[in-house]
Amino acid sequence: SAIIKNDSANDNSYVRIQLVGSQSNRDAIGAIAVLHTSAGDRHKYISGGTSYLSQSEFRLHWGVAKGTEVTGMTIKWPSGLEQKIDQVAINDTTIILEPISE
């Protein structure tokens, strides 16, 4: 057996989020997150139970190419709420809580 490590360097970045539901289910299964960038919108969907005898990753991860500007994010929660986020952290994991509607 062997362990292989990739040490290749690049100037790219990433955005990683973890959604926590309050009105929806805790893992936000069914939520859609849209990352808005200068290169266009990129959609991700949180699903669960997609593989037999395995577990799904509930964090969402986007690679962001060098020179691409992240302009915001929209979360569409399973409860029907839509949440807009103007400031998105780069190269870090952000935990986003579902807002409580009135």
Structure description:
The protein has strands spanning 13-20, 32-37, 40-45, 60-64, 70-76, 82-85, 93-97. 0% of the residues lie in helices and 40% in strands. It is flat and about 45 Å long. It is built from no helices and seven strands. The protein has 102 residues and is mainly beta. The chain has a four-stranded antiparallel beta sheet with strand order 3-2-5-6, with no helix packed on it. Strands 4-1-7 form a three-stranded mixed beta sheet, with no helix packed on it. It has one domain. The mean pLDDT is 92.
Number of helices: 0
Distance between the termini: 56 Å
Low-confidence segments, given as residue ranges, are: none
Order of helices and strands: EEEEEEE
For the biggest β-sheet, the strand order reads: 3-2-5-6
* Domain tally: 1
Quaternary: single chain
Which percent range describes the beta-strand content?
A: 35-45%
* Cα radius of gyration in angstroms: 16 Å
Q: Percent range for helical residues?
A: under 10%
Main sheet record:
4 strands, antiparallel
The structure class reads mainly beta
Number of strands: 7
Q: Write down the overall geometry.
A: flat
Mean pLDDT: 92
